[in-house]
Design goal:
The complex is a heterodimer of chains A (208) and B (596).
Chain A: E1 7-11, H1 15-27, E2 31-35, H2 38-44, E3 51-56, H3 64-74, E4 80-84, H4 89-97, E5 102-105, H5 110-142, H6 146-156, H7 161-168, H8 172-185, H9 191-201
Parallel strand pairs in A: 1-2, 1-3, 3-4, 4-5
Helix pairs in contact in A: 6-8, 7-8
Chain B: H1 2-30, H2 35-59, H3 63-92, H4 97-116, H5 127-151, H6 156-183, H7 189-241, E1 245-250, E2 255-258, H8 260-265, H9 270-273, H10 285-301, E3 305-313, E4 319-330, E5 336-345, H11 347-402, H12 409-434, E6 442-444, H13 446-456, H14 458-463, E7 467-472, E8 479-481, H15 483-500, E9 510-517, E10 522-528, H16 557-567, E11 571-576, E12 582-589
Parallel strand pairs in B: 7-9
Antiparallel strand pairs in B: 1-2, 1-5, 3-4, 4-5, 6-8, 9-10, 10-12, 11-12
Chain lengths: 208, 596
């Protein structure tokens, strides 16, 4: 299965700017979809299609920042490049805080815009790769029994089998068996690797 | 006994006739044109001659002598008849002309026959010619009197009765006498002479009455002339004391009347101006030409003409402004040969008006600059949009050309041209708003004006989260106005409306702008907001200068707006909406060319 080509959404209520920006991006070989408002974007965007958004800040009804908030609440925020007529410091700070990748002012140079879009697409690609990897790792973690998870917590905290056994009120041998199961289910060969995936999956280590 | 009495009587009558004839002869000669008096004088002389003939006839001894005298008696008789006709025609202005000529012809004929026949026309069939002429004379006089009697002018009936009646009497008497002579009876001097004297006395009294009346009139006239002269002097003083210019000119442009004010303006005297034209005193040919045109227009159209402002260069070469009324003085024939003018010097008032207008413009400009400062961000954004589109379009086109993809380039270039023009229009509009000049009036479409103004604040409206709705009426009449100032008013109202809603929760900031014609030939523009509204007692106060609810406002905006609308002959007012918020609306009179 090949991934669909990334799509750049251009959202601007001003028709001439919207079309001109889309033309620049298309001339760089990018696939572009234009939307006249934030609402239209929400209807047309597909979270499974990779891409980014070139978003006008000031639009009637539903502003760019509001759209960013809505997307953040939904959890899957594509990389957003804000394009605005006048760069208000407060607005730009808020936009960047909420994860915008760029904050460009109109008129924008084609190279700057294209570079920004390319790096946004790259970021989206990385984000998606990381997200799918993470999902894979989480799937593996989900296979662990509660006891195995418990043991994992002690292992990545750096406890010895003997200590874990004492802690859990069992024998060292049992711990060894659990540990082997964990290594197998999480498809890791060493403790170092185990710690690495656990951190990525956000598994908390056991604190004493 | 009778023999001694009759000659005295006859001579007395003849004397009286001569006296009367002499008096009227003198009057007739002295007062040329009074043919009636001359004719009357001739009648009197002829009567005198007839009376003397009568006397001679009585005293004749032989029939031959009698016939000869009778023949010569016809001469004064004919003269008397013709003079009677002339008198009736000239004094009464009556009598049929054909009848008059008929009588004259018959008289002349009878006179000729009289001298051809022997011893005279009497006792001969031809005598009928003379009798017919006398009868016709009686008819002529009677007909003329009848006409005068019914003419109905004052005094006509009395004159007809007295003079005409007596003439009729004498004519009848002559006719009778002629018949008696024909019949061979002894001619009676009483039959001829007494009616003659009677008619002379009566007519003379009547005519003398006319002379007396004329003399009285002359006295009266002289008195009136003195009175008129006094009146004229008085009126002269009145018009000279008036500070306004008063003048009258004839069709040739010559002054026939000027007052002191006109003479003072031209640095001359009233007398020196009479008979001269404006060009003799005014050194500005254009003004003279304009005056002349206006004068002739008034004389030709016969209509009064008001010139609310006209220029005149005075003797010192300084320009003065006049408000002038010119009206034709109509003659009896309905045309005008004189034009009467009156002009008020409005120079000082005009200067004051200009100063007020200048200050108003200055204030409007100042207020406009303040307002432009407020919306400058929006304007910059509005200008930025097409510039951004132009840049991106141009760069896209360059990239496509580098790749030899020409398909879309044409379309892109068209878009570039369009956006460039749009930016140009915005700058043009801005330049207008920034300009500080005299107010310039022209016909404006308020729909267009409102649309342009809204475009300038588009960005502010967006950033303020305001939902704008508009209501334009397509066939709205145009108005006469200053584009810049009216746009200023509208921008002010829109910016105020947006500010009024800044505290509203997002989604409750609704602005409605509408343009529509009213029933009374005006155009109304309404700006309806959804803000807090105006506190009830403050509705009129918001238009006072330096009254503001804003922290950074001077409070001049609305007071200037109201002044602008008032100077356009319109009205600007505010009202709270039934539900929420306030409405500011103004009306402007529709331009006359467009009035429905």
């Amino acid at each position: 299965m090949t991934a669909p080509p990334p799509c750049v959404f251009v959202v601007d209520d001003e028709v001439s700017v919207r079309i001109a920006v889309a033309r620049v991006l298309r001339s760089a070989g990018l696939t572009v979809t234009t939307c006249v408002s934030a609402q239209e974007y929400l209807v047309r965007c597909d979270p499974d299609v990779p891409g980014c958004v070139v978003l006008d800040l000031a639009m009637p009804g539903f502003s760019g920042l509001e759209l960013q908030n809505v997307l953040a609440a939904r959890g899957d925020v594509p990389p957003i490049i804000f394009l605005t007529g006048h760069a208000d410091v407060q607005e730009s700070v808020q936009a960047m805080k909420h994860g915008a990748v760029e904050f460009l002012t109109k008129p924008v140079d084609d190279d700057i815009l294209i570079d920004a879009v390319r790096s946004a697409l790259e970021k989206d690609r990385c984000d998606r790769a990381r997200r799918s990897e993470l999902a894979e790792v989480r799937k593996r973690f989900a296979k662990l029994t509660p006891r195995e998870s418990e043991v994992l917590g002690y292992v990545i905290s750096g406890r010895l089998n003997k200590q874990i056994a004492a802690e859990l009120g069992t024998v060292e041998k049992t711990i060894k068996v659990h540990r082997a199961h964990v290594m197998e289910k999480l498809q890791v060969a060493s403790v170092a690797e185990l710690v690495h995936v656990s951190v990525r999956a956000g598994i908390p280590s056991m604190r004493i | 006994m009778a023999i001694t009495w009759i000659p005295i009587f006859c001579l007395m009558i003849a004397g009286a006739c001569l006296a009367v004839g002499l008096i009227h002869g003198v009057v007739g000669l002295k007062r040329t044109g009074e043919l009636a008096h001359l004719a009357f004088s001739v009648i009197a002389f002829s009567y005198a001659a007839i009376t003397v003939s009568e006397l001679l006839l009585i005293r004749t001894q032989s029939p031959g002598e009698f016939g000869e005298i009778l023949r010569w008696t016809h001469v004064p008789l004919s003269v008397g008849v013709i003079a009677t006709i002339v008198f009736v025609r000239t004094y009464f202005r009556a009598g049929r002309l054909w009848l008059a000529w008929g009588i004259v012809t018959l008289q002349v004929l009878s006179l000729i026959l009289n001298f051809l026949l022997h011893p005279n026309i009497h006792r001969n069939p031809w005598a009928a010619v003379e009798e017919a002429s006398l009868l016709l004379l009686a008819v002529f006089v009677a007909d003329a009197l009848w006409a005068v009697w019914w003419r109905g002018r004052p005094g006509d009936r009395r004159r007809a009765a007295t003079i005409g009646g007596s003439f009729l009497l004498v004519t009848a008497a002559w006719a009778g006498a002629s018949l008696l002579l024909q019949g061979g009876s002894v001619p009676s001097v009483f039959l001829h002479a007494i009616p003659l004297l009677a008619v002379l006395v009566v007519s003379s009294v009547e005519l003398s009455g006319d002379v007396l009346r004329a003399a009285r009139l002359a006295t009266l006239l002289q008195k009136n002339e003195e009175l008129i002269s006094d009146e004229r002097g008085f009126l002269r003083q009145v018009i000279d004391v008036v500070p306004n210019l008063i003048f009258a000119k004839n069709r040739e442009g010559q002054f026939v009347l000027v007052n002191q004010a006109v003479a003072d303006l031209y640095g001359t005297t009233v007398d020196a101006m009479i008979g001269k034209t404006s060009g003799d005193f005014n050194k500005n040919p254009q003004e003279v030409e304009a005056f002349r045109r206006a004068d002739l227009e008034v004389l030709d159209t016969l209509k009064e003409k008001l010139n609310p402002e006209e220029k005149i260069t005075d003797a010192r070469g300084q320009i003065r402004w006049l408000q002038t009324v010119k009206r034709p003085i109509l003659g009896k024939d309905g045309t005008a040969s004189l034009m009467l003018g009156s002009a008020t010097d409005i120079t000082a008032r005009r200067q004051a008006d200009l100063e007020v207008a200048r200050q108003r413009n200055e204030l409007a400009h100042f207020s406009r600059l303040t307002m432009l400062g407020v919306i400058s961000g929006s304007i910059a954004h509005e200008l930025n949009q097409p510039l951004a589109a132009v840049l991106s379009n141009a760069q896209a086109a360059l990239r496509l050309l580098e790749k030899n993809q020409f398909g879309e380039v044409h379309e892109i270039l068209q878009d570039i041209v369009r956006d460039n023009k749009r930016a140009g229009e915005i700058i043009q509009g801005l330049r207008l708003l920034l300009r500080n000049g005299e107010s310039r009036r022209r016909r404006l479409d308020l729909n267009e004006l409102v649309r342009d103004a809204l475009r300038l604040v588009h960005s502010d409206i967006l950033n303020g989260g305001v939902a704008l709705t508009t209501g334009f009426t397509p066939a709205t009449p145009k108005v006469e106005g200053d584009q810049v100032q009216l746009q200023q008013v509208l921008l002010n109202l829109v910016v105020n409306a947006c500010d009024a809603m800044a505290g509203n929760p997002a989604g409750d900031r609704k602005l409605h702008v509408a343009v529509e014609p009213t029933a009374d030939s005006c155009v109304e523009v309404r700006v309806v907001d959804h803000g807090e509204g105006i506190p009830p007692g403050e509705i009129e106060r918001v238009f006072e200068p330096f009254v503001t609810t804003k922290k950074d406002g001077l409070g001049l905006g609305l007071s200037v707006c109201r002044k602008i609308i008032q100077s356009h002959g319109g009205r600007l007012w505010a009202a709270n909406n039934p539900g929420h918020g306030a409405s500011f609306q103004f009306t402007l009179p529709a331009s006359s060319g467009d009035a429905a």
